[in-house]
Amino acid sequence: MLKDRKLVLLDDGRRNLLAGVAQLKRILDGEEGSFSAEQYIHLYTAIYDMCTQASPHLYSQQLYELYKEVFDDHNRSTVLPSLMEKHGEFLLREFVQSWEKHKLMAKWLNRFFNYMDRFYVPQKRLDPLEEVGRKSFVELVFDKLKSRVTSMVIGVIDDEREGQLIDRALLKNVLQVYVEVGGTSIDFYNVDFEQPFLKGTADYYSKKAQTWNFDKTCPEYMIKAEECIQKEKERAASYLHSTTEPKLFEDALFELIIRHEEEIMNNENYGCRVLLCEEKTDDLARMFRLFSVVKDGVLPISRIFQEHVNKEGMSLLKHATDAASREKDEKEIVGLLEQGFVKNAIELHDKYIACITNCFQDKTVFHKAFEVFCNKDIAGCSSAELFAAYCDTIIRKGGSEKLSDEAVEEALDKVVKLLSYINDKDLFGEFYRKKLGKRLLFERNRNDEHEKMVLSKLKRFFGAVFTSKMEGMINDIALSKEHQSDFEEYISNNSELKSPVYLNVTVMTSGHWPNFKNYDINLPSDMVKYVEIFKVYYHSYKKQRKLTWIYSLGSCIVIGRFDAKPVELFLNTYQSALLLLFNEADRLSYSEIVTQLKLSDDDAVRVLHSLSCAKYKILNKEPSNISISPNDVFEFNSGFTPRSRRIKVPVPPAEEKKRVVEAVHKDRKCAIDASIVRIMKSRKVMSHQHLVSECLEQLNRTFKPDITAIKRSIESLIQKEYLRRDSETANTYRYVA
Amino acid sequence: MRRSSKKSSSSSAAAATAGPTRGVSKEIERIDQLFCTYADSSSSVIDPEGIEMLCSHLEVPHTDVRILMLAWKMGCEKQGYFTLDEWRTGLKALRADSISKLKKAFPELVQEVTRPSNFQDFYPYAFRYCLTEDKKKCIEIPVACELLNLVLGLQFHPQVDKLINYLKYQNEYKVINMDQWMGFLRFCNEINFPSLDNYDSDLAWPLILDNFVEWLREK
To answer: How far apart are CA B124 and CA B120, in angstroms?
Structure first.
């Protein structure tokens, strides 16, 4: 077959091909059916032959040029004119059609010219045939029409924005042409459509924004704006290319919202501040949504929020301070403040946490709003102290069943949440520990469940180290109870130890409990006897421990046999010891009392005052004024007739607050030292700034260290030769092993 | 023949070495002699009295910084006392074996000490020299002020002046330690005075200097 191949001459070949092309055009126009197999093979073979014939009948190059010619011709004479005479929607439709037809034509012709495309084209490194066709279309059709088409499309889109219904499928197809016409890149789409479109959008919305500003109020404006932006998003998804969506969204958002940020935020009647005051949750949430798209867009909102919350917080503070300033008694002050301030602070927090969750998607930056007013001192009390007092009150109420279990837990939950904003967490811990101690030792109605519940909450928030001592305290009490029953058994088993004095001992591990002010006293012999018995008993099973007796925490029930009736007096150890002196003598002078009890003047005055010059006159004093002087003489008041059979004689407490604060500051110094040594030991070499920031971070959970304190620590550690300054690099320290 | 030549060469060699040795040993002798004129006979060190005498002969007040520099050159360990070894070290290095030569050596000594590389060594030496007891690591404020004036007063008069005023005024620190002492030198060398514009208290300056700068800025 091959040997008999007839030579195809160029002119013949051209004629045949052009006839084939004409036929193809008719087919595409729908005027004819498809090629028959014979016709197809005929054309294919013709081309094949012309490309494989021996020279000088090798016509590959001419065929390549013919191909291009076919398209150019077609586009120039048929396609373009037809498009040029159309308008409006018809233009768009024709535009889409022409590209579709082009694709079909290219497909068919490529089949015919396939051999050439596979061998000649790569050999000569020419554009593949598909490219040739596309380029022809672009040059002769697309480029000539693109601006008309683009502005038409933009016009249609604007119509849709104004509410008209449009043919979205058509637009999608038109834009698809832009994409496909670029071949592998979407540059045509970007440059010839997207850019003008985005600009048009910006113009459209900037005009809209102007008109709306005059018509609509802020919240309404935002609602409208959000609607439009949603629509744009939907539009993009529906018929624009996917790359346009984010840009469109940003541009629309910018024109509508960001450009007017100042106005929207700070509008007198509808700005952010006003919305907060009026608790317009929806509007706030919308505002947040709209601004959160832009980087740092919500910072102004968070700032306004912080100012607002802070203002309310500070007014609470002022309120509480004013109330407290009218009160003289310190204990009353604390009571007033913790109920007045803490309770209201918790309510404020609740209200605005809800706001943060509902409107601001719980972003952390908003939580900072609580930090300022939670850390201010009020009327000389630190917020840490007040929170501890508040917890104390709740737990006591829970113990005396004024509050249900759930109410207690709920209230404590809220306090713990507020605690996370406090810088001086360790100060809170100390105050809490002190109050816990008092509760554990003196409260009659104690609810251990509540205590443990609070501790587990604190543990979760602040770590086990924070609560370890407090847990130890609770354990001590439980253990003591057990041992007390053992002790009583021990006594009852030893007849010689029996005595009318009943002793209840609580043994506390000194490391767990806060320091208590204690002063020694000469106890009466009955008490001393029992103290000794307990010592013996205790050392029988805990040989190594040393017992220190804290009489200042002790309490006694003394029966006073007055003329009228016997009365049970609830006193502390010192008062009891003093009163028992009167079992031996009816009258005692101040100096005698002081000598026998070995008390200091301050302590003696306090105790005597509580027994002779206060509410209950158990002792008569000569002279009978209300101040204790060293010349006074005291006598048992047998005529004392209280109304009830049981009375509690209180003693005013000693100044504690300062000591707690001092203790905490001492601990902090050690904590800073330890932290610095730890950091330097692991890093060996560190710059000053890094060391300071690491230290701050490590300690942040417990308290906020002062930079000066850290520097002081570093210097003392240099002095003690734990660190030294690096001799080569400035501002750097080295660990000294 | 060989023997005699060898002998002569060795003897000439001996003669050649004998010359300088004799000269050197003469110097050492004079230095030692000079030492003995001031040393206390029982303790065989020059004690404060002896130093005073030395200073009057040198026509230099005994609180002058040059005596301190001399002590540095000698490597003296104990303030107010020169041992024989220290004396020898110092005077040999200065190539002085008489009072007049020693007096003449002073200007060069001052120049040598104020060279930055040497000053970095002299400055902490001055501090250590003032530590009176073995275990002590700090010097009292008044002593520190004197020393500052002595050692830095010439080079950095305005800073030293203000610093001394501050040290006397504040009462947070009663003593100065080595770290703070070195801080003073760094301060004078690095910080623009009196503008203080490149002082950053967030850097690793000792707290006493932070407070000093704050005090200056407030005025």
So the answer is: 7
- List the one residue out of B38, B58, B55, B57 whose CA is nearest residue B46: B38
* Chain-chain contact of B204 with A731 (C-beta, under 8 angstroms): yes
pLDDT tens per residue across span A642-663: 888 888 887 766 667 777 888 8
CA A368/CA A175 separation, integer angstroms = 48
Query: What pLDDT score was predicted for residue A507?
Result: 86
Q: Would you say the C-alpha torsion B128, B129, B132, B138 has a positive or negative sign?
A: negative
Task: Give the chain A residue nearest B208 (alpha carbons).
Answer: A712
pLDDT band at residue A215 using 50, 70 and 90 as cut-offs: low
Q: How far is CA B218 from the centre of its chain?
A: 36
In whole angstroms, give the CA distance from residue A284 to residue A301: 9
CA–CA distance, A311 with A372 (Å, rounded to integer): 10
- Considering only residues 686 to 705 of chain A, which have any Cβ-Cβ distance to chain B shorter than 8 Å? 688-689, 692
Rounded CA gap, A211 and A200, in Å? 17
What B181-187 contacts at long range (C-beta under 8 Å, 24+ apart), as own/partner pairs, is: B181/B123, B181/B124, B181/B127, B181/B144, B182/A725, B182/B123, B182/B124, B183/B208, B183/B209, B184/B148, B184/B152, B184/B209, B185/B123, B185/B152, B187/B159
Say if residues A384 and A428 touch (Cβ distance below 8 Å). yes
Helix H or strand E segment including A412: helix A405-419
- Chain A residues within 8 A of B202 when measuring between CB atoms: 688-689, 692, 707
Burial B182-191 (b: 16+ CB within 10 A, else e): bbbbebbeeb
pTM: 0.67
**pLDDT the model gives residue B11:** 46
A 10 A CB-CB count for A91 gives 18
Which residues on chain A are in Cβ contact (under 8 Å) with B210?
Answer: 708, 711
Q: How confident is the model at residue B12 (pLDDT cuts 50, 70, 90)?
A: very low
Encode pLDDT of A93-119 as tens digits: 888 888 888 888 888 888 888 888 888
Rounded percentage of chain B residues whose pLDDT exceeds 90: 16
* Ramachandran angles phi, psi of B73, nearest 5°: -60, -35
- For residue A471, count CB atoms less than 10 angstroms from its CB and return exposed for 0-12, middle for 13-18, buried for 19 or more: middle
A154 Cβ contact partners less than 8 Å away, ≥ 6 residues apart? A196, A197, A200
> Residue A693: which pLDDT band, with cuts at 50, 70 and 90?
very high
Tokens coding B179 = 């770290």
Total number of residues shown for chain B:
219
